[in-house]
Specification:
heterodimer, A: about 550 residues, alpha/beta, Rossmann fold, 3 domains, 6-stranded mixed beta sheet, globular, B: about 300 residues, mainly alpha, MetI-like fold, 12 helices, elongated, disordered N terminus, cell membrane (chain A)
């Protein structure tokens, strides 16, 4: 019990950890992982999908799926106790009081049919022999500490009555109410908007300072890392690549993979100048979309998904629409290709209003759409060739000609034409997104709509796909409407930017103006909330004040 | 042939290390391969093949005319002339069993074809064209509320007992079940991004249904089809046994059991032989269906 301030206690120590498939595979999933977490310290495990970061964190929680994954070597010491060897009963005790976990998606981590207060209360009931009055007081205290408003009402609320940020606060309250020694957070802010993310990160930091909790933060987002990490553990394909202090990894990474990973993070400095001379490809005038019907005995409860939206996209220009979830950016994009019918206003494509035309087939020859999730936007039962040729054949092209064109376009997006006979599941996410882009490009549209087209991709793949958009724009002079929630991505690729909030355009202008000198308070909030605004990842240094 | 606009690759072709050759689970080809790897499935498949062969080759299997009455040879036991003996009219039971397979299989197959085709039609109609949903599905709900056997008896009573009437009578109550299933699958698929992507590519309604919607219904339909097949054979036997099915002069397993009922104490084999055939057929077809379902929907397999 000697408490020496100069030598903080090691809370978690992972030594030579190896995790393998249960009928052992060729190579363990996670190999020779070593790292330590001190009291009051935040360690970020960073890696792309498939790097083994989640498997590592599940091993620490003792939550590896039984019968498919198992720890086959090494030790995980929690306050000196090896949790790979403890009994199931002891593990349950540890899981509550020793180590707690916060998941990515708060909605699925909470029971939808139980009041949130009772769910937190249940944790106490199972682990503390307290009276119900004591427990209730403790739960309300905890709700106060995670800065929820009106805690009495929140206590009685169901998860669906709370916002995403509030739900994540509840999950954090539940994780921390037993004052665990170690908090494991697996992408806890990935599903949240940037402004909410900022608040949650601050909350975790604050609670950690009060309790001296050790935090392991699993994430793919270097912005978040640079905000919160004391030390960083970089993983790649099941191996530990590099560990080091936050400053060291971000400013002077030793390993090539880390260098590549850090420099793939787009910086917030706008790169593309405005384009003003070329003709307008898309001109959106007073576009509105309302949901909910009036009359017929229904209450006039109208939702304005988009309200009087105006913007233009010129030939060879990439215009970004940025905004948080629910801002109406996707609604606008869907109205432009008439997947959704606009309620009011005009959508001029090459000067022709398509807002009310019945000839949708003509519209869709000119405008193409790329979806967010490359795993679901390709029909799993159709070969790449079939998917790529579909549009051309629909417009009457002969099969042989369509096949040749499809092969050509596939090479344009950086895939060999030899893969035409394969099915989507044989490709990685980034490759699928290339295929989806090829499927849109093969139609030779005048306007390409990319709806969060790089949001589901790892940073290094994201950088490649952004390069691809850039190359395609240069070669074909196509106009692109680029929908994103990520300011860094927008800064990387857009010539001009439209900021939307609650269905309305609050600010529009060249990328340089909007990002460097934002006028509207909402834009300013967004930029301030973007993680690590002051760091230029590509050059491993703080960004110069603009 | 190639237009030289976009020929040169803009990005160096990537090597494709993540490429796998693992077959996707749930595809029809993978399923069939897995199905034949289990013993239960192999045995049921052999039984089904044998019964189908018996039906097709009935005239060449040493049978006699199954409707030839021989008053002098009533209720005989097994002999070389009559392998399974004769019935109360002196007809050869072995030949009647063999020819009866034709009726049962025809009813099974016919029911599957009718109910699946119409079920797909209504399922697509209600699942994809939402305006039709309210009207058609209420009609289907009404149809499902009527007990199948009673509906069949009523239909046969109205329009007379022929094979066609019996087929329709058995198939009609199955239609809502198929339609609901197809509708559910299509409702799930129609909002998938790949369907919206096809819309953006200008894919028309019929191409959309054919290329993107119907393929996902194939697997569940395959499973449902086997159950309908087995249940139709059962229903036909029941109808014939109740005297509301296939005309009594036609040799069918149900008719044979109905006629054998009178002589149950005297000569139980008259019910036994067709009864065993019905059970064998239904059992093995159902088992095939179970194996198919376990393969196509593994979550169900673990629950049962």
């Amino acid at each position: 019990m000697t408490d020496i301030a100069s030598a903080p206690k090691v809370v978690l120590s992972v030594e030579e950890l190896r995790v393998d498939l249960v009928p052992a595979g060729e190579k363990p999933i996670v190999r020779n992982i070593n790292f330590q977490v001190m009291e009051g310290e935040t360690v970020c495990i960073v890696g792309e999908s498939g790097s083994g970061k989640s498997v590592t964190s599940m091993a620490v929680m003792g939550l590896l799926p039984k019968g498919s994954l198992a720890v086959t070597g090494g030790r995980i010491l929690l306050d000196g106790e090896d949790i790979t060897r403890v009994s199931a009963t002891r593990m349950r005790e540890l899981r509550a009081a020793g180590v707690a976990m916060v998941f990515q998606e708060p909605m699925t981590a909470l029971n939808p049919v139980q009041r949130v207060g009772e769910q937190i209360d249940e944790v106490l009931r199972l682990h503390r022999k307290w009276s119900s009055a004591e427990r209730k007081k403790s739960v309300l205290d905890m709700l106060e500490r995670v800065h929820l408003p009106d805690v009495q009402r929140i206590y009685r609320s169901y998860p669906h009555q709370l916002s995403g940020g509030q739900r994540q606060r509840i999950v954090i309250a539940m994780a921390l109410i037993l004052r665990p020694r170690l908090l494991l957070a697996d992408e806890p802010t990935t599903a949240l908007d940037v402004t909410t993310q900022k608040q949650i990160l601050r909350l975790i930091r604050e609670l950690q300072d009060e309790e001296r909790t050790a935090v392991v933060f699993v994430t793919h987002d270097f912005g978040v890392v640079s905000e919160i990490a004391d030390r960083i553990v970089v993983m790649n394909r099941g191996e530990l690549v590099e560990t080091g202090s936050c400053d060291k990894i971000l400013s002077d990474p030793a390993d090539d993979y880390t260098r590549m990973l850090v420099s793939s993070v787009p910086s917030l400095i706008p790169r593309c100048g405005p384009i003003e001379k070329t003709p307008k490809v898309l001109d959106v005038v007073g576009l509105s979309k309302t949901y909910g019907k009036k009359g017929f005995g229904k209450s006039g409860n109208l939702v304005h998904a988009a309200n009087g939206v105006n913007f233009t996209v010129r030939k060879g220009e990439i215009t970004g629409i940025i905004g948080e979830s629910g801002s109406g950016k996707s609604t606008v994009a869907r109205c432009v290709i008439r997947l959704t019918d606009p309620s009011e206003g005009a959508v001029l494509v090459n000067g022709n209003d398509i807002a009310s035309t019945n000839n949708l087939k003509a519209v869709r020859k000119k405008v193409q759409y790329i979806f967010q999730d490359p795993y679901r936007s390709l029909n799993p039962r159709r070969t790449i060739a079939q998917s790529l040729m579909e549009g051309l054949v629909n417009y009457g092209m002969a099969d042989a000609e369509a096949y040749a064109k499809a092969a050509e376009t596939l090479e344009l997006v950086g895939l060999p034409a030899g893969v035409m006979g394969r099915y989507p599941h044989q490709f990685s996410g980034g490759q699928r997104q290339r295929i989806a882009i090829a499927r849109a490009l093969v139609m030779k549209p005048d306007l390409l709509i990319a709806d969060e087209a790089v949001s589901a991709l790892d940073v290094s793949v994201q950088a490649q796909v952004l390069d691809l958009f850039e190359t395609i724009r240069k070669r074909t002079g196509i106009a692109v409407l680029f929908i994103t929630h990520d300011l860094r991505v927008a800064a990387q690729i857009c010539n001009s930017i439209v900021v939307m909030q609650r269905g309305q355009v609050v600010e529009a202008g060249t990328a340089a103006d909007v990002l460097s000198a934002p006028q509207h308070p909402y834009t300013q909030t967004l930029i301030a909330a973007a993680p690590a605004p002051g760091w230029d990842f590509q050059n491993f240094r703080p960004s110069r004040a603009v | 042939m190639t237009t030289p606009t976009l020929t040169e690759p803009s990005v160096p072709a990537q090597d494709l290390p993540e490429m796998t050759t693992v077959p996707e689970t749930g595809t029809v080809k993978a399923t069939l391969r897995a199905v034949f790897s289990t013993w239960a499935a192999r045995i049921s498949l052999i039984v089904v093949v044998l019964i189908v062969a018996m039906a097709l080759l009935a005239p060449w299997l040493g049978t006699q005319d199954p409707v030839q009455i021989a008053p002098g040879e009533r209720l005989q036991g097994s002999s070389l002339a009559h392998f399974l003996g004769t019935d109360s009219y002196g007809r050869d039971v072995y030949s009647r069993v063999a020819y009866g397979a034709r009726i049962s299989l025809a009813v099974g197959a016919g029911t599957v074809v009718i109910s699946v085709l119409l079920g797909i039609f209504f399922g697509v109609l209600t699942g994809y064209f939402r305006w039709a949903d309210l009207i058609v599905m209420r009609f289907m709900d009404g149809l499902m509320a009527i007990p199948g056997i009673l509906l069949a008896i009523a239909l046969v009573a109205i329009s007379g007992a022929t094979l066609t009437t019996v087929l329709i009578a058995i198939a009609v109550p199955e239609i809502p079940r198929v339609a609901r299933m197809v509708r559910a699958v299509i409702l799930g698929v129609r909002t998938e991004p790949y369907v919206e992507a096809a819309t953006c590519l200008g894919t028309g309604i019929w191409a959309m249904v054919w290329r993107h919607l119907l393929p996902s219904t194939l697997a569940p339909l395959l499973v449902q089809g086997t159950y309908i097949f087995a249940s139709a054979i059962m229903t036909e036997s029941i109808l014939s046994f109740l005297g509301a099915g296939i005309p009594p002069e036609t040799p069918s397993w149900g008719n044979m059991m109905a006629e054998g009922r009178v002589y149950f104490l005297l000569k139980p084999e008259l019910i036994l032989y067709p009864g065993v055939m019905v059970s064998l057929t239904v059992l093995s077809v159902n088992m095939l269906g179970d194996v198919l379902r376990d393969q196509l929907d593994p979550r169900m397999a673990k629950r049962l």
